[in-house]
Amino acid sequence: NDLINKIAAGEVIERPSSIVKELVENSIDAGATEITIEIENGGITYIKVSDNGKGIHEDDIEKAFMRHATSKIKNEQDLFKITSLGFRGEALASIAAISKVELTTKTKDVEYGVKVNIENGTIKNKSYSGATTGTSITVRDIFYNVPARLKFLKSPSREQSYITEIVENLALSNPQISFKYITNKKLVFVTKGDGNLKNVIYVIYGKNIYENLIEVNCSKETITLKGFIGNSKIEKNNRNYQSIFVNGRYIKNKTITAAIENAYKSMLSINKFPFFIINLFINPELIDVNVHPTKAEIKFSDEQKVFKEVYTCIKECIINKDY
Ligand code: ADP
Ligand code: MG
Description:
Elements: H1 2-12, H2 16-29, E1 34-40, E2 46-51, H3 61-64, H4 91-97, E3 100-106, E4 113-119, E5 122-129, E6 134-140, H5 147-152, H6 156-173, E7 178-183, E8 186-190, H7 197-205, E9 210-219, E10 223-232, E11 242-246, E12 249-251, H8 254-268, E13 275-282, H9 303-320
Parallel strand pairs: 1-7, 11-13
Antiparallel strand pairs: 1-2, 2-6, 3-4, 3-6, 4-5, 7-8, 9-10, 10-13, 11-12
The protein binds adenosine-5'-diphosphate and magnesium ion.
Adenosine-5'-diphosphate binds near residues 53, 54, 89 and 135.
Keywords: DNA damage, DNA repair
Family: Belongs to the DNA mismatch repair MutL/HexB family.
GO molecular function, one term: ATP hydrolysis activity
């Protein structure tokens, strides 16, 4: 069982950034409005994610760390219908199988917080203390018991850059949540959590890498687009500053990218990859269920239609912008 847990963990938890993604998504699913992410040494020494979400009831703690105990889906068809980010019920189990976890949590109906330490997937000790409602999970010594995986990790600075990308994307796709990101005890950024995406873009990218931001806010028959597009000021012509979120999940999709770029280039006769942060909302049934949702790449049942609608939306938003 221990071995099975470790092997299965490898699929979900590839590196420290996977842990950060899973923990923060849990915080989002728990309704948090403030999430703090702290990492040390590229997340290899520790990762701590604290939130003010609904917390975990004492009786549910053990279950939360059991594989599939919380799975919300029964078949592939359900995958895109769920509204929460988590659905497999195996992230916490996987994390606990390959690291040392400390959890402090409090629900609003009890007066005290519960703290547990989990090692080798089992609860080691439990204590009670004062705490505010929410959950804080510290993950230490990642892959301490899987040396082959540990060896596979890149340098702390490289691992940190993977984490930073994940945290940035989570902040960009959730402007209604305040994110605080700390690396090696230094504050990297804080977002306000007031729902204003443009402010999040300022906080994360500053003003040096884009100009002339245009707001995108448009609905067509099957899609709604919200976000910003602008000129990239980066000398290198690459797609590093383009993010697409479909129904809140960070994804990559050539059709959407091409539609945005083509519309932008043709309208503004700029022959460079634009900067953009675009949220696309679509009925989950129009997403091709044969593509696994844990992969960043997705397909739509009618790619042509999505292309046309995105293209038209971007064009209209550029035309309607008041200069
Ligand atoms: P999943 O997110 O797929 O359900 P996880 O292993 O990530 O599975 O989490 C297991 C369960 O633990 C969640 O379904 C949730 O009930 C609980 N949980 C995990 N993290 C938090 C959190 N930060 N706040 C409240 N509940 C949490
Ligand atoms: Mg989860």
